[in-house]
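In this section we walk through a basic example: taking a raw amino acid sequence and producing a predicted 3D structure, encoded as discrete structure tokens. The instruction is simple. Fold the sequence below.
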Amino acid sequence: MSYYLIKDFLQDSTIEECTKREFPYVAVVTAEEFDKNYSFFDMGIDMEVEYEHPGLTKAVVNYDSLTGCFSIPDRKDLFGEHHKFSFALDEKGIAFINDDGTAQAIIDKVKATRKWRDPSLERFIYDFLERIVENDLKFFECLDKQLDEMEDGILKGEIDDVMEPLLDFRGQVLEMHTHYEQLMDLIQEFLENENGFFHQKNLRFFDMFLNRINRLNDLATSMRERVMQVRDLYHTQLEVRQNKISTVLTIVATIFMPLTLIVGWYGMNFKYMPELERPWAYPTVIGISVLIVIISITFFKKKKWL
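The resulting token sequence is shown next.
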């Protein structure tokens, strides 16, 4: 259990100091501790807080509180289990209900890196949310670099199968897109400020974060399109390679068509074929065959089909 007061910085505190209500507070508690100290938080919660099995990132308005959940994908393993925790807030402060230490780790970052000239609950929430997405731009830059290398490999013919990694990239981008959509819904609830917990002048912090999430979401959308472009490039190169193979096979078949005619012609069992008994007949047929091959190859090279 951890308690903090929002002053010029995030100051360690106790539950007793937080009850004085002189400054907004931040609490990080387990589900068991939240139930045990429920009266301290004094929040009008008419809906059950989903702290045992948190779901999607969302916010729910109660008659005298705002509750909800965070579902944060692990940037190192986007297809793995999300980091999930719940929260409950009112005008006096915010409590995070979390058993795996995710919320505490984010708050530790805020505490270590932030000092405020005009401290407020809204500013703390903004900085908390910022820590969630702080490395996402770097994540997309890394993904973009991998796609660039994949494009180069496709154009050089060094990569034979890209569908599996492309599907993996597409799934990662989709996970991030879904995460941003949920964060936008959460911030919209904060901006509604239905219970009046937030000062009107401080709603600008939520607007700032919403703008950042919109930009990241646009980046995720464009990255998804980029994945599709690389897939289309791979299919195009595959078709070009297949067309080249078909062209070579067609040329070979075209060259051997007149040779096949000669073989078929002289393979007929006619009794009278006078040239078969001539001593120059065999070398003549060889010469004609070689000449056909030379003329055909010269023609195809002139047409740049070879």
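Looking at the output, two observations stand out. The CA atoms of residues 130 and 212 lie 9 Å apart. Residues 243-302 form a domain with the Methane Monooxygenase Hydroxylase; Chain G, domain 1 fold (CATH 1.20.58.340). In the next section we compare this with other chains.
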